[in-house]
## 1
Amino acid sequence: MKLPDIRNDNVARFLDSAAVVQETAEQIMKDFAMFGITITFSGNTAQAYRELHEQLVDQIRHLLANDYQRLLSVLYQVDITQREITRAGLELPDYNEMEVLAHQIIVRDLKKVLTRRYFKSQK
């Protein structure tokens, strides 16, 4: 088993497992909770991306307008680089800036989950 190659154009492929979706949602909720921001997940794996993406866009919009420093702290915690944001913006031309950031948060936390699962399977 090798580490999965997650890209902006193949994220959905990795969100086909209910357990992976749940763990990714929990990772997003945990990352945002560290900054007093509530993200929820209904458990509906078929709608998980849309559900989480919409909430993240709303939170990012709020933070951009009211607490930019906290947004930067969240992005640092999630571990998203400017390079990744720029690349995602080019790869997702139909997304606005907030939608790109929300997508990158989901992608990054999905990578964290899959990396953890990979190393657990190696033991």
## 2
Amino acid sequence: MGEIKFVVVDDAVFMRTLIKRMIEENSDYVVVGEGSNGYEAIEQAKKYQPDIITLDITMPEMDGIMAIKGIAEASPKTKILMVSAMGQQSMVIDAIKMGAKDFVVKPFDKSRVQQAIENVLKTV
């Protein structure tokens, strides 16, 4: 399959760093870009055409839910993996309806993140 490209989008720098480390533990995965809000997510999608974007739901300026449509238009092949805090189930359901492929809930463990990535890669 070759190298899988990721963009990590979260308004918290420590969360981006944590997710990036978990992703890059797999030698076939590379994080090519990062963002801190929905606008940056769309720009990164346009610029890098990543295979997967991890997208936080709650962010300033433009949240993850609002960014899904823009990402889909900017990079139609990119798959979206939502990252949510506890208690955001209804937003996660909305995100899945809009095209997100899977989700992880913070605080998350490495095995769940890896499983979610594998699930997303299997989707068409």
## 3
Amino acid sequence: MEGFVIKEMSWEEAKKFGIDSWETWESGPDVTEGEFPEQESCYFLDGELHLTVGDKFYLVKPHMFVTFPKGLPCKWDIPRYVKKAYKNDYEL
């Protein structure tokens, strides 16, 4: 998946990129499938996300940075709760 990035990142490193000033979003349990309408980068602050991209599964937890390119089809399964800081059209 071109443009899809997922990596661990400490909070101190994240702050160097200004992530501490990004908008936040949170959700309780939910399952969603679809494509991203625009490119989004996010840093997970709390909770857990079961992410499926194509035939690959990813467990996304706090201190993980993810970039979703525009049009990327994926499935989000939030088992309990998740909170992320996010910004559109941002690349590291």
